[in-house]
């Protein structure tokens, strides 16, 4: 049955040359990104704007740390979603349940006041988004055989859906936030995710049975132990919050430490497992330098939602023919370039076929380009209010986009190819852990950003990313040897 399904999927080219089933995952991910980026586009502003402006009045560094910690927690929670998929119910079912949890989180942000709404809403959205992310990627991977040359192009098309939602979300929530208030913006995010849930509920049956397979079923006798651990973990977190160990000011540091611990544990569990053979183990080792490069990239890239938001609010000239562009609209610039360029990149990779650069080369170039993007801030360093032209930020975000397309869709694709059979979805979660770590670091770094002395900040971080990329570029051959035929 599985082989016949694979053959049928390979022959199916109804969705822009890709399997028609891709449209269902494309749709739910598009609406999830609409709600995610729509909410995140106004979240930092909500946290640090004063009460008279409708916000909560937190210090900028604390607000940035919360946003970074929340973003990191989203990707950190992919571990839970991946584990439940691989051990209990399969990727497709986790994807569906996660969409429901996300809707609940956005509703909480829209309806519950103050820090209660922020706490409940962000926890639910983080859990749901983490479950959806890893499993949506895994489900897309089930639509292709290992040697299907359309695979990278299919992931790039999937990435296009993500960015259609990411483009529209900040624009529409930004309009509502600036005209009606923050909670109306959060409410629109809830409506968008509800549309995604409804759309997916009708299309999910068309996905292949492989998407529902549980690759490493948990024995029934261990279910009570899982329940006890889950309750204990929730209780421990509640106690740490109540006694003040976990607080707003140190959230990003806690998420960084938690992600590092989870990463070490995950690599150890996979590499020491008796369920993988020597080839699979070598490929996991080959993934390690890609993981490190990914962390360096995301720690800069995710500052779109921390430092760049602060920069756009205080330093960017947002006047367009007498109209002041809402701050969240800046976050829609990158998705526009993704929409334009993702098809170009997909076409280039498809045309080059086996002649395209290897994955380590793409990753190395992505980190170098991202570092260069940070150096492009230097000519505008030290300027006053409204001193940075909007066109300059547009150009810098174009460079952000080129770097992203060299790493993000390529990373999703190579992870599914390097993944051991027994750890398919959990390997995808490991890639998301690199994003979790980079995102949490992006929030932690806000404390070092000084608008009156920007040169050290942008030059040091840009230089580090370039060095990491150069290191991988010089290590391409040994990394490819470890990847054992995956390129």
From TrEMBL:
<feature type="transmembrane region" description="Helical">
    <location>
        <begin position="329"/>
        <end position="349"/>
    </location>
</feature>
<feature type="transmembrane region" description="Helical">
    <location>
        <begin position="94"/>
        <end position="116"/>
    </location>
</feature>
<keyword id="KW-0813">Transport</keyword>
<dbReference type="InterPro" id="IPR005279">
    <property type="entry name" value="Dipep/tripep_permease"/>
</dbReference>
<dbReference type="InterPro" id="IPR036259">
    <property type="entry name" value="MFS_trans_sf"/>
</dbReference>
<keyword id="KW-0472">Membrane</keyword>
<feature type="transmembrane region" description="Helical">
    <location>
        <begin position="223"/>
        <end position="246"/>
    </location>
</feature>
<feature type="transmembrane region" description="Helical">
    <location>
        <begin position="388"/>
        <end position="407"/>
    </location>
</feature>
<protein>
    <submittedName>
        <fullName>Proton-dependent oligopeptide transporter, POT family</fullName>
    </submittedName>
</protein>
<feature type="transmembrane region" description="Helical">
    <location>
        <begin position="455"/>
        <end position="474"/>
    </location>
</feature>
<dbReference type="InterPro" id="IPR020846">
    <property type="entry name" value="MFS_dom"/>
</dbReference>
<feature type="transmembrane region" description="Helical">
    <location>
        <begin position="361"/>
        <end position="382"/>
    </location>
</feature>
<dbReference type="GO" id="GO:0005886">
    <property type="term" value="C:plasma membrane"/>
</dbReference>
<feature type="transmembrane region" description="Helical">
    <location>
        <begin position="122"/>
        <end position="144"/>
    </location>
</feature>
<dbReference type="InterPro" id="IPR018456">
    <property type="entry name" value="PTR2_symporter_CS"/>
</dbReference>
<feature type="transmembrane region" description="Helical">
    <location>
        <begin position="182"/>
        <end position="202"/>
    </location>
</feature>
<keyword id="KW-1003">Cell membrane</keyword>
<keyword id="KW-0812">Transmembrane</keyword>
<feature type="transmembrane region" description="Helical">
    <location>
        <begin position="156"/>
        <end position="176"/>
    </location>
</feature>
<feature type="transmembrane region" description="Helical">
    <location>
        <begin position="428"/>
        <end position="449"/>
    </location>
</feature>
<feature type="transmembrane region" description="Helical">
    <location>
        <begin position="63"/>
        <end position="85"/>
    </location>
</feature>
<dbReference type="GO" id="GO:1904680">
    <property type="term" value="F:peptide transmembrane transporter activity"/>
</dbReference>
<comment type="similarity">
    <text>Belongs to the major facilitator superfamily. Proton-dependent oligopeptide transporter (POT/PTR) (TC 2.A.17) family.</text>
</comment>
<dbReference type="GO" id="GO:0006857">
    <property type="term" value="P:oligopeptide transport"/>
</dbReference>
<feature type="transmembrane region" description="Helical">
    <location>
        <begin position="284"/>
        <end position="301"/>
    </location>
</feature>
<dbReference type="InterPro" id="IPR050171">
    <property type="entry name" value="MFS_Transporters"/>
</dbReference>
<dbReference type="InterPro" id="IPR000109">
    <property type="entry name" value="POT_fam"/>
</dbReference>
<feature type="domain" description="Major facilitator superfamily (MFS) profile">
    <location>
        <begin position="21"/>
        <end position="480"/>
    </location>
</feature>
<dbReference type="Pfam" id="PF00854">
    <property type="entry name" value="PTR2"/>
</dbReference>
<keyword id="KW-1133">Transmembrane helix</keyword>
<feature type="transmembrane region" description="Helical">
    <location>
        <begin position="34"/>
        <end position="51"/>
    </location>
</feature>
<feature type="transmembrane region" description="Helical">
    <location>
        <begin position="252"/>
        <end position="272"/>
    </location>
</feature>
